[in-house]
Structure formats: structure tokens, C-alpha cells
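Could you help me review a protein record that somebody else here produced? My question to you is simply how this chain folds and whether the C-alpha cells agree. Thanks in advance; the entry in question is below:
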Amino acid sequence: ETASGAARVVGQLNRTLCRRGMAERFVTLFYGVMTRDHRFTYCNAGHCRPILVRQSSVRRLAVGGLPPGLFGDAQYDEESLYVEAGDTLVVFSDGICEASSRAQQFGDARIQQIDMEHHDETAFAILDRVMSGVRDFTRGARQRDDMSVFVVKYLA
């Protein structure tokens, strides 16, 4: 177990949800902990794979496990990585990547392209660019799911 215990926390949440017996209901989540030594430890439990944009690379954060609430004995993993000044993390719900216009979905590739093109901007600007990109793409068509985006830019 690591110092952050991200996988342990998600495992405890999973067991709690399963004990409640919510009959085929589950959640997805992305849980992370940042320490003072620039280490970010996360567990992705069935959520859309967040995008970590660095000066020279892009990573998708997929380590974790199943959505909590499905199986009481599910196992969760975590990954630790070091972040540097300027690194940007973009976490989004499936309502963003699945936003549709006619027969097409907005998709992860469009989110990643926006993140890469505007990496040097503030977190608020990146958030605004993703949301305006979805609005422009869907052209006001009614969507079936919530749309959530969370952007963190590491400055220290």
C-alpha cells in the first residue's frame, strides 16, 4: 500500500456501495492525491481516462479497476507519477466525449487535441475551450447525459 492509499480508499467505497445493495447501480470515479514532493497517486475506477498533458507528451490515466458498486470483491490498483510545473490534468465525464451531433460523437480525440493545442493557457481557459468545443460541435442539440469537466494545472 502506498502512502496515499488511493486504491485502498476506492476499494473501501466499493465495499460500502455493494453492502448497501443498490440493485444494479454503480458509479465511476477518478480519485487522486497530490503530495508536497510533486507525486500524484491516482485510481481510476471505471471513469473516462483523464488526459495528462505535459510539455512533451500526453498520457491517459487508466490504472484502477471496475466502477464501484458492481462487485464487492473487486480489486483496485493505483499509479504514482511525478508532476512538473505546467502539467495539466483534464478529467471529464462520458457526457463530454459522447456528446453527439447527428451520427457522430465529440470523442476523446477532440478533447485531447484541444488540451494539446492550448496546453500553455490557464486551467480556466482550457475548461472553457473544451466546453465551447462541445457546444459548437453539438450545435445546440439536446444531450442525454451530464457534461462535467475538471481541469488542474500544476504551477509549483
User: Anything to note?
Assistant: The mean pLDDT is 89. The helical segments are 6-20, 94-97, 107-117, 123-138. The longest helix spans residues 123-138. The beta strands are 29-34, 39-45, 51-53, 58-60, 64-65, 79-82, 88-92, 100-101, 104-105, 149-153.
